[in-house]
Amino acid sequence: MDKLNLPLRLLGPKLLAVALLVAALLWGAWLTQQVTSAPKQRIVTVRLAETIGTFVEEAARADADPAVVQAASLAYLKAAESAVADMGHDGRVVLVAEAVLAGAADDATSELEQRIADKLAGEKQP
Questions:
Q1: pTM for the whole thing?
Q2: Pfam families of this UniProt entry (predicted)?
Q3: Helices (H), the chain
Q4: Fewest C-beta in 10 Å: which of 39, 62, 100, 105?
Q5: What distance lies between CA 85 and its chain's CA centroid?
């Protein structure tokens, strides 16, 4: 057998080119896997009008200063908006139940109410 007589200066760039090609192929495979493996989306509904209506009824029954009721209402609405937005971060599509005509979507109203209560409790603490 004859020895392979390649000068090292010619072998280096070829090895570098092969290494770059392998790295590019691995990166392309990883990127393809990341793009095609989107999280499964799930549709849920919340009875937002009912939830806010309950709060408004309780606020109307309370004997409080109108300014206090207005501030509490504003805080509640902000907490509700934030809670709905948070619920949509994990791949769920949140629909208002009053706007859904038909379908078998899970009801997440109790989760919404809990998130609103948690946000309001978190605001009251310094």
A1: 0.60
A2: TrbI_Ftype
A3: 8-36, 48-61, 66-87, 109-124
A4: 39
A5: 8
